[in-house]
Each structure stands twice: as C-alpha cells, then as structure tokens.
Design the sequence.
C-alpha cells in the first residue's frame, strides 16, 4: 500500500530570529577541537587513585572480610569498608523533590555490610598513590562468602518460596490502571488477541565511562568534579557521607553521554568518602568493564497484551500485564514501571483498560533509568500488538491504527486531558511516505544479491508512540535560571543544567539570544554546578528544554523588559515599536534609529536598574494518584511521533539488514533543527541497536558481555541513515511551544523493525533483540505449525468468538 | 621490568619520557596532557583514543608507548584550535556531528586519515573508514555529512596533509562485527 502524508492543520508560528535556526551549538567547536575537558581529564597535585572492590557472587552473606593485607601494602593510603560509613544506604530517589514512592528498607548499600545481592555490588574502597598500587591492593582484599540461593528471573522471584531480597517479598513496586469496564469491553469484542512480548537488559554504552575527582577544600567542603546528569545528588551524597548538605559541592562537567546511566549516583560517594578520609584529592575512573558491571541497565520487561476488538477495527478493551526485573535494588524502578504502565496501551483510545505492573527484585544487575524510562519496552509491545491485530483483521496497519488513534483533545490512559496537538496519523503517514518505493530485489545491496538467491525477503513496518516529557507532576518539579547583561552588551546565563551532549545548554542560549537580541556567540553559560549555578533540576525525563528553557525564557524576559523600558524613555517611542536584535535596540518602524546594547546597558546601569534576573519555573503541581487505579493528571504533556523502516531478511542465515529508516516527530517547536535531527537520528540508532543486536547477557547474575566487543552497539556499517522529519505544531508546554524529543526519539525504532520483519516473513518475533537465531527459530516454528501460522504468526492466537455474535 | 627513556613527538612537540614497557600510548599521551585522546575502552573496540602515528590512524590503547618511540604522533588537538580549527573540526561543529563530543577526536582522526588517502570518498567509503569508531549519540548521519562536506570543498587542500601511509584503515581501525562474519 502507498501512503500519503495526512494534511496538517494550519499552524501559525511566530517568526523568530534565533530560535528555530540550525545554528552551530555553543559547545560544538570546543568539543570538535578536543579542548573540552571531561571528568576523567582532571588531575590535581598530590592526587590519589581510587578503586572499588566488588562482589563476585550474586547473593551471599559476607562471612569474613579482611582488608589488612591491602591496607599494609606500601603506597596504599586507605581502605574503607561498610564499617567506616556513617549511614550506609544510598537514597536512590528523585533528589530534592517531593512526592516520592520508595519501599522502606530496600535502598542500595553504599558498601555491602552483611549481605551482597548482585555481582559487582561494592564492598570496599581503596585509595593509593598510583593506579597500579590501587589495583594490586584489590587483589589483597580477602572475602569469604556464605552463598545464599539466588533468583534470576522475575517470574520465579514472584513465586512463593523464592529467595527474598528485600523483606517481605520481591515486589519492589506495583502500579495499576483501572479505567472503564474491561469485562464488558471484552464481552462485546468480536475477537480477542493475546500475545506476550519480552525485552532484555540493555546497557547505555556511553563512550565516556564514569569518572570523577574529589578534594576537600580549605573550609572542609567536599568538592566533587564528576560527569553526572544530576548535580542535586549532593543531598544524597551528604547523607551518605554524614556531612551537612551545604558541605558537598558538585562541579559537573560536560557529560560524555548519559542516556540515564549517569542519572543515579556513580562514583560520587566513593570519591567523597576517600577524599574525606585521606585529606587528599582522589581520582576514580571506571574501566569499560567496571562501567558495564557498576551502572544500571534498562529493565527487562515481560508484557502480555490481551486486546478485544470489533471486526470493524475498533478496540473495545485491553488488559495488559507488565513484569519488570528491577535487579537487586530498586533504584528508579518504581518510576520506570510507572512510565511503562501509563504508556502501556499506547496512543490509542481505550475506554476499558486494565494495566497491572510489577517491578520485581532479583539477584541480577540493578536496573534503573535509560532513555525512554519504561516507555520503549511498552511501545515494543503495544506496537507489535497493533500490527498483530491488524493482521488478524486483515487490515492495513495504518488504517487499523487510524481507527483507534487518540485525537487532539482526547484523554490518555490515566484520563488526563492532553492539551497539545496529537499528531499520530500525521507523523506515521509521513514516516511511511518517506520510505518511498519498496526496494526491488534488483536494488538490494550487492552482498544480499550474491549468488542470485531468493532467500531475501523485504518488509516494512512502522510504529507510533506517545511519550511524556517533564517530570511526574506530583514531584513538584522546578528549575531556576539567572540571566544577566554585561556592560559590553554580552549576556550571561547561570543555570545548573547538566549537558549530556544533547544540546541542553545550547537550547537555552538560543532562547536567551532570541529574547535579548544578543548574538548567540556573545552569550556565555555557566552550568551544572550545585553551588554556584541556580539549581535547574536533573537532565533526565526530557525535562531540561521544557523546564530550564522556560526558566531562561522567564529570566531573559524580565531583563528584556528593563532594557526596553529604558529604551522607551530614551527614544520616546512606544514600547511596542521597540525591539532587540543583533546586539542592538532599535525602533521597528525606523530600524536605523537605535543603539548598541552596550550603550543601552550603560544607560540602565547609570540608574541602577536591575540588569539580571533569577527566575523560577514551576511545572504544574498535581496530587498524587491512587496507585491502584492511576486516574488523573500525571505528566505536563506528551510528544507524539512515528518511525518507519524497511528491512531485508535473509531466510537462510536469519540476518536482518536495515535498508531504510525514516522518523517523524511533532516536536512542538524545534529550537535548533540540526540538534533536533541529531536527537532523532541518534535515538533511532539506539533504538535500531535495541532491535537487532543489543543485549546484556546475564547468566546466574553474571554479566557475560562486559565489553564493547561483546556488547554490540551499531557502527556506521550496521544502520542506514534515518531521515528525520520534524513537525512543529507549536502546541507544547515548552518555550515557544516546544515539546521534548530526547527520549521519545528512541522509542518507536525497535517495534518498527519487529513489524517490518513480521511483514517480510509473515512470522512475528516477540522478543528483543531480533537476532539471526530468533529469526531462524521463528521460521522453523512457522514451518512446523503449518499454513495457519504462516499467515498469522507462529504463536497460538487466542480467539474467542463471543456468544451471540 | 625497567623503564626506558623514549621520545614522543606529539603535535610538533618533543617529549623525552621514562616509561615502563607495559605503558600504552594512550596512557602516555594522557599523562603528558593530551587529554583530547579519550579513553573509552582500552581494548580497541571504540576508537575514541585514535591518533595518527606516522600518518596512519591507530587506536593508541593498542599501541605500547615504546612502539611509538621517535614516531610522529598527531592527536585531534594537533589538527586545529578554537581560533584556527581544521576544516574537519569546523564541519563537525557546523553539521551537528558533535553531540557529547567524547568520540569526536577519534572520529576526526579517522576522517582525516581517510581524506589524506582518498580526498573524495563515497558515503560507503566514509562509513567503512569510520566503522572502527563508535558513537552513541548521533546515529552517524551528521558525522558522515560533515566528512562529505569537507571532501566536497576545496578547503581541505589548504591544510597540509599529515604524512600518510596507504590503506591501513582496515586492519588498524576497522571494527569487523559479527554481521560481517556472518556474511563471510
């Protein structure tokens, strides 16, 4: 079927000078010439090297821990264990925010005290004069374990009698949606389709392993220079180290990729403890292997959809069960699960909906935030389910979805009215249209045509999604920004925004440039410092443009008012006839009439007018929802979009080759279109990796793939270009109508690939990643199951003809 | 093991350093302050530590410092500065090829080595030349665009190419993945 782009409702966006332009990002050239310093690049005189001693077993009582030999090694300055800690546990919740949900007694241990619950759990810290000595010291630490039975499968962990990690049971979080009448909805359905989908552990695999440098300054403050998404962790660090919160100073650096993996505390507490105990600067940098073992993973999910539909394609009810593996400690699992539960049905009208989600503790590596935060797993399931249903109904997948897509003005699964545009068919049809003509066999890459084999099947698929941006509204999220003018007409922003590489700081610079008329290259930003820059909240949850963009917009707007008011008196013109641009104030009706900003600033300064402003932006605050039905407002807003791909599947080898990829997202307003395209293409690449190759293999709690040669992420040779199609509805709650795109960009890629593979083969694969082995196994099952399955998939469909219809 | 005094010639500077035989070029360079050479894996998997060694790209984590004794080493920071960036560095900044920036110095080194031997590569050749460099942020599209932009402009010729040997790309940097093994 050929797809035509659905026409867009006309949108009038204000003409802007800087915002919306594909300008060079303020951080780009420094990084390109290698001048940017990352956390691992800093050293100090008299510096020590830190190392972490970790558990080698997944579940055990520590029978004996003896660090005396390590302590005695010449060059070792200190060895710390749990006995040296004042607190001992690590509060892993949303730092500095209210409305939290964490089960008592399940916090991670900074250093294991009596029991270890996963391989890699920290047990002791070493600081030594050289890295070699520190590494040697690790080998001298003696530990005897009394092994405890482990549990490595969340479904096993739910069974009575399973080993319990955190009393009373392994369920560390659960959420439910109850909306409408599911029994009634199922009763009126013509058909019920049930499938179970599975997603694996995935690693962030940012190029920069975790690193930091800490020192105690002349007033006793512990300074920590670190790559982090969250400078507000200073609060939890202070608690863990046993000092007042104002005695921890986080100096964030440019982050060499975060994607959620640097959202939890990594090296900070270890550094603080070692610096405090040694009174010397300490550097701690993880190797790649330690990075794999030490930081969180994306949650594996098992998701079962049971969907009732009418023969005409209308969905009448859905029942969805989700089980997430939280690993040994919850970290952010309660919220990841919540995001997954809220987006479980996808962007579809579902009046009768029941979702049950559980996050379950196991002795596996712990899981926490990863770009998408539960939404990609949910999308992988619901978008395959949509294609599966369409196949049973013998309907076109887009046509089937269009019957059920939410429309602008609709409410979501939690019954929250969506205030922004819901462009689902608009984005899906454009992504599909962009694929162009289906690749004929003659145009396949040479490697696939070799030998003239007819084993290659070409297929297409797409996936739509909806995804929140901004924090859960009962967390009471805020961001602050300070914006000021300098005497020469330049401007300064101070805001605690960590920049992960996605363009977080550049966006707010373009916004300030727009508002103040100061050219982008004359704007300087100081950011990601917990003490010296106003706290802007975390670079997570696709919230920085929304939150800090609005804070900068507000602060710059106040400064603009002062400048224009002074100019009004000077030029004796109407305020409405004055504007700021290109470093000048000028009269709009007579642009020659004006002056450089430096002169205007001088006029203001001569009167003591405020040339700077500190603004606080607050997200909407709502009451906490009942966890048993989750009905009510929960997020500030949502982003909508779609991705379409074309694949070639070799039915002899099982290999999948990606031929084409196009993604279309309504980003509300693109502050910097090049950066937005970069988010879309980068998100797509991670999603395509999720689809085809990425899996942290864990056996009995041990990671089998702790290197970039074993844990494969896409190279230039593995993925095609992703055509980024940017729509601007101007309807978001971010500055200038922007929505968030950072996390959503990843979400639709994997289900799009799965749907394309199913299109190519006539067989569906329900588990990520779509490895050659799984392709061949699916083909085998289909052959064995006969023609019925070749048409409808190898897994048994659960049909029920409703009595009386 | 005994240290040996070797000479590392980096970005036009000469350093006489006493190093043990097991010190990699990556560590030696970073200890000398060349922090633009990034440590991403220490196993030759990611390409973040790539430098030009006598004009050819190598993963400095896979080269012992002793092996580089007397050789000409060029790091990304040796190609240009904020005030005088190399055309590749400018193109990377302008096209959005830089996101977190951690892989960038290594990728620019690989791109430089490619253009030194093949000034007008096809997209496929660009992809092959950069296949030993992992990037987790960009999806590579803007990176390929940046290299193409430089290859299409005359400006690269105004920068003298560093000395280059012929096709060392495949065995020094190219990262053959399972995919290719499957294809045989």
Sequence:
């Amino acid at each position: 079927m050929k797809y035509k782009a659905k026409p867009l409702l006309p949108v009038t966006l204000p003409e802007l000078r800087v915002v919306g332009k594909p300008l060079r990002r303020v951080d780009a050239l420094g990084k390109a010439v290698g001048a940017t310093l990352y956390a691992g690049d800093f050293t100090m005189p008299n510096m020590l090297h830190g190392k972490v001693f970790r558990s080698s077993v997944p579940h055990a009582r520590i029978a004996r821990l003896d660090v005396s030999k390590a302590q005695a090694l010449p060059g070792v300055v200190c060895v710390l264990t749990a006995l040296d800690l004042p607190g001992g546990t690590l509060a892993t919740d949303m730092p500095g925010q209210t409305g939290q949900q964490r089960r008592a007694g399940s916090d991670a241990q900074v250093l294991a005290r009596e029991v270890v619950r996963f391989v890699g759990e920290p047990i002791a810290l070493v600081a030594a004069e050289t890295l070699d000595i520190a590494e040697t010291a690790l080998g001298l630490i003696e530990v005897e374990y009394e092994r405890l039975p482990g549990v490595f499968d969340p479904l096993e962990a739910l069974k009575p009698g399973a080993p319990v990690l955190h009393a009373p049971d392994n369920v560390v979080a659960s959420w439910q949606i109850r909306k409408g009448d599911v029994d009634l909805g199922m009763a009126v359905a013509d058909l019920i389709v049930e499938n179970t989908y599975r997603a694996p552990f995935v690693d962030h695999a940012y190029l920069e392993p975790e690193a930091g440098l800490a020192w105690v300054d002349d007033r006793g403050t512990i300074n920590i220079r670190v790559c982090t998404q969250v400078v507000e962790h200073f609060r939890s660090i202070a608690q863990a180290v046993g000092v007042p919160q104002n005695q921890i100073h986080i100096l964030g650096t440019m982050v060499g990729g975060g994607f959620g993996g640097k959202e939890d505390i990594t090296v900070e507490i270890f550094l603080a403890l070692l610096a405090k105990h040694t009174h010397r600067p300490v550097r701690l940098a993880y190797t790649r292997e330690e990075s794999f073992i030490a930081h969180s993973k994306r949650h594996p999910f098992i998701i079962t959809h049971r969907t009732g539909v009418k023969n005409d394609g209308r969905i009448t009810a859905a029942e969805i069960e989700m089980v997430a593996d939280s690993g040994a400690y919850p970290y952010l699992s309660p919220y990841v699960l919540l995001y997954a539960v809220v987006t479980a049905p996808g962007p579809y009208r579902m009046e009768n909906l029941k979702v049950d989600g559980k996050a379950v503790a196991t002795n596996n590596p712990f899981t926490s935030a990863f770009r998408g935060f539960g939404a990609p797993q949910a999308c992988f399931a619901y978008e395959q389910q949509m294609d599966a249903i369409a196949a049973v109904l013998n309907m076109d997948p887009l046509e089937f979805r269009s019957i059920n897509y939410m429309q602008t003005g609709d409410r979501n699964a939690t019954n929250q009215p969506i205030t922004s545009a819901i462009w689902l068919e608009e984005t899906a049809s454009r992504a599909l249209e962009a694929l162009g003509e289906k690749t004929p066999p003659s145009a396949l890459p040479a490697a696939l045509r070799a030998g003239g084999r007819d084993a290659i099947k070409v297929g297409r698929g797409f996936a739509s999604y909806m995804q929140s941006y901004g924090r859960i509204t009962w967390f009471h999220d805020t961001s602050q920004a300070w914006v000021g003018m300098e005497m020469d007409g330049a401007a300064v922003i101070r805001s605690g925004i960590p920049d992960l590489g996605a363009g977080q700081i550049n966006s707010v610079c373009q916004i300030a440039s727009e508002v103040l008329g100061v050219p982008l290259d004359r704007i300087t930003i100081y950011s990601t410092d917990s003490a010296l820059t106003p706290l802007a909240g975390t670079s997570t949850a696709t919230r920085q443009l929304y939150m800090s963009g609005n804070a900068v917009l507000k602060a710059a707007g106040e400064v603009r008012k002062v400048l224009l008011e002074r100019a009004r008196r000077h030029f004796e013109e109407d305020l409405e006839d004055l504007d700021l641009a290109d470093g000048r104030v000028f009269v709009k009706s007579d642009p020659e009439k004006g002056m450089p900003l430096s002169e205007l600033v001088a006029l203001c300064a001569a009167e003591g007018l405020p040339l700077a402003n500190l603004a606080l932006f607050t997200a909407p605050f709502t009451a906490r929802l009942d966890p048993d039905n989750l009905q009510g407002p929960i997020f500030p807003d949502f982003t909508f979009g779609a991705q379409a791909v074309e694949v070639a599947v070799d039915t002899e080898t099982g290999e999948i080759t990606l031929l084409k990829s196009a993604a279309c997202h309504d980003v509300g307003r693109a502050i910097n279109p090049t950066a937005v395209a970069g988010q879309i293409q980068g998100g797509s690449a991670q999603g395509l990796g999720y689809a085809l190759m990425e899996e942290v293999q864990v056996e009995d709690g041990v990671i089998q793939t702790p290197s970039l040669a074993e844990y494969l992420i896409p190279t230039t040779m593995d993925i095609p270009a992703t055509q980024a199609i940017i729509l601007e509805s101007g309807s978001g709650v971010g500055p200038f109508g922007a929505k968030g795109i950072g996390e959503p960009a990843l979400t639709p890629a994997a289900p799009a690939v799965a749907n394309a593979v199913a299109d190519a083969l006539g067989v569906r694969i329900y588990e990520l990643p779509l490895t050659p082995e799984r392709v061949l196994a699916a083909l085998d099952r289909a052959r064995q199951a006969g023609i019925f399955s070749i048409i409808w998939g190898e897994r048994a469909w659960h049909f029920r003809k409703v009595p009386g219809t | 093991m005994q240290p040996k005094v070797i000479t590392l010639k980096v970005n036009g500077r000469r350093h006489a350093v006493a190093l043990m035989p097991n010190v990699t070029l990556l560590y030696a360079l970073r200890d000398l302050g060349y922090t633009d050479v990034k440590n991403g894996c220490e196993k030759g998997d990611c390409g973040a530590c790539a430098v030009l060694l006598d004009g050819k790209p190598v993963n400095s984590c896979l080269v012992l410092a002793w092996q580089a004794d007397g050789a000409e080493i060029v790091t990304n920071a040796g190609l240009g500065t904020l005030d005088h960036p190399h055309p590749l560095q400018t193109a990377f900044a302008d096209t959005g090829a830089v996101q977190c920036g951690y892989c960038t110095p290594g990728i620019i080194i690989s791109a430089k080595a490619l253009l030194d031997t093949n000034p007008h590569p096809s997209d496929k050749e660009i992809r092959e030349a950069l296949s030993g460099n992992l990037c987790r942020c960009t999806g590579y599209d803007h990176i390929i665009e940046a290299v193409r932009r430089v290859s299409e402009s005359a400006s690269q010729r105004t920068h003298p190419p560093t000395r280059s040997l012929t096709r060392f790309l495949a065995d020094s940097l190219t990262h053959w993945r399972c995919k290719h093994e499957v294809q045989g």
Summary: The longest helix of chain B spans residues 104-117. Chain B is about 30% helix and 15% strand. The helical segments of chain B are 25-31, 87-95, 104-117, 123-129, 141-152, 169-172, 178-183. Chain B touches chain A through 63 residues (CB under 8 Å).
